[in-house]
């Protein structure tokens, strides 16, 4: 197992956020590596890293990612994907990933990653998916040996700036019986609209495989429209800039009127989940229109207006974070209590890409876990 994560208590209580049952919907495999594992894997394939000290390497990633630009943020992945080009590398990283989620109290997680970025050393797309699934299953077994339980699903991602969307969509459908639960597109958002991958989305709709789309992070409402219309997205990856479609008017300094634009109204009324990632949204400048501190994040606005908000890490290595830490940061910023944190987990359980019966069982587990806290 990895080192014990930092402990966080709900303010004024003895309740540990770490121990509360959690659901993770937006967590990238190549953004959650342990620095020590990276160093070990890099040495085995002769890849040079910025440093071979694990603590220094973790700090380097967090510093480089804290740029205010999604494009610069994404450059850090050159090193993480670099050590994930072999079956052994993918399997090891996936196993670590599962163990680290379980150590953080996650009982269900969806791990997203782009197989097309892991073929440099001869793996096929199918072999890459199989390697990750092998690691996931090893991680689940390891966690069970420690007396815990976790379930993991793969989200197969296509890179939006590439031209392999349909091929990757077909890959996802081929492996839907082997751990894959859904599809995603990621990468540079601005200039690469969802409509470029329309053939993939049409195919996925025909095959009834659920879709989430990165949108509303580095681009605004047009990107979200494309995710909903072209992608038929059931969830929005980040989606934070949906707040641009919310108008707040204060009258006489007392009364406040809020108007939702058509996109925001659609998303709220149909309970399309927002995969919000607070620390990442600060790092990439996704919330720059509102400010540059956690208190400026429109998370609470969206929550209070009834949107299906969920809390996520995006890339734990780059943000030097955990799901527990993200919940703690929001609690400190907005004064949330256990009831609020439970709502966020129930929202995620309702939005996860599992059959209805499994979502209901997950909901029951969350309710029971919070009741015991």
TrEMBL record:
Gene Ontology CC terms: cytosol
Molecular function as annotated in GO: adenosine deaminase activity; metal ion binding
Pfam families reported for this sequence: A_deaminase
SUPFAM superfamilies given in the database record: Metallo-dependent hydrolases (SSF51556)
Ranges where the Adenosine deaminase domain occurs: 21-367
KW Zinc (keyword) present: yes
InterPro entries in the cross-refs: A_deaminase_dom, Ado/ade_deaminase, Metal_Hydrolase
Family: Belongs to the metallo-dependent hydrolases superfamily. Adenosine and AMP deaminases family.
Identification of the protein by name: adenosine deaminase
Organism: Glaciibacter psychrotolerans
């Amino acid at each position: 197992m990895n080192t014990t994560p930092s402990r966080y208590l709900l303010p004024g209580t003895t309740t540990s956020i770490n121990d509360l049952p959690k659901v993770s919907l937006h967590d990238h495999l190549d953004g959650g590596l342990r620095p020590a594992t990276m160093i070990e894997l890099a040495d085995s394939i002769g890849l040079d890293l910025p440093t071979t000290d694990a603590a220094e390497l973790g700090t380097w990633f967090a510093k480089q990612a804290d740029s205010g630009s999604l494009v610069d943020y994404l450059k850090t992945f050159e090193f993480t994907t670099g050590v994930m080009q072999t079956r052994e590398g993918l399997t090891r990283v996936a196993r670590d990933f599962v163990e680290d989620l379980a150590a953080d109290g996650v009982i269900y997680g969806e791990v997203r990653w782009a197989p097309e970025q892991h073929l440099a050393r001869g793996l096929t797309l199918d072999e890459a998916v199989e390697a990750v699934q092998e690691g996931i299953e090893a991680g689940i077994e390891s966690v069970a040996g420690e007396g815990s339980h976790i379930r993991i699903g793969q989200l197969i991602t296509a890179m939006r700036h590439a031209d392999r969307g349909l091929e990757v969509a077909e890959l996802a459908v081929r492996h839907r019986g082997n751990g894959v639960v859904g599809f995603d597109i990621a990468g540079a958002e601005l200039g690469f609209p969802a409509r470029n991958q329309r053939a993939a989305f049409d195919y996925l709709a025909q095959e009834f495989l659920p879709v989430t789309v990165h949108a509303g992070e580095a681009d605004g409402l047009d990107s979200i429209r494309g995710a909903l219309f072209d992608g038929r997205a059931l969830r929005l990856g980040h989606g934070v800039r949906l707040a641009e479609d919310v108008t707040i008017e204060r009258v006489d300094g007392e009364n406040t009127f809020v108007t939702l634009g058509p996109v925001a109204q659609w998303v709220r009324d149909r309970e399309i989940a927002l995969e919000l990632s607070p620390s990442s949204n600060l790092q990439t400048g996704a919330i720059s229109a509102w400010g540059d501190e956690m208190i400026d994040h429109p998370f609470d606005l969206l929550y209070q207006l009834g949107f299906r908000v969920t809390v996520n890490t995006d890339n734990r290595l780059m943000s030097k974070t955990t799901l527990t830490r993200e919940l703690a940061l929001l609690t400190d910023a907005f004064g949330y209590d256990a009831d609020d944190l439970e709502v966020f987990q129930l929202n995620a359980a309702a939005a996860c890409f599992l059959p209805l019966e499994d979502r209901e069982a997950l909901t029951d587990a969350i309710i029971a876990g919070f009741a015991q806290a």
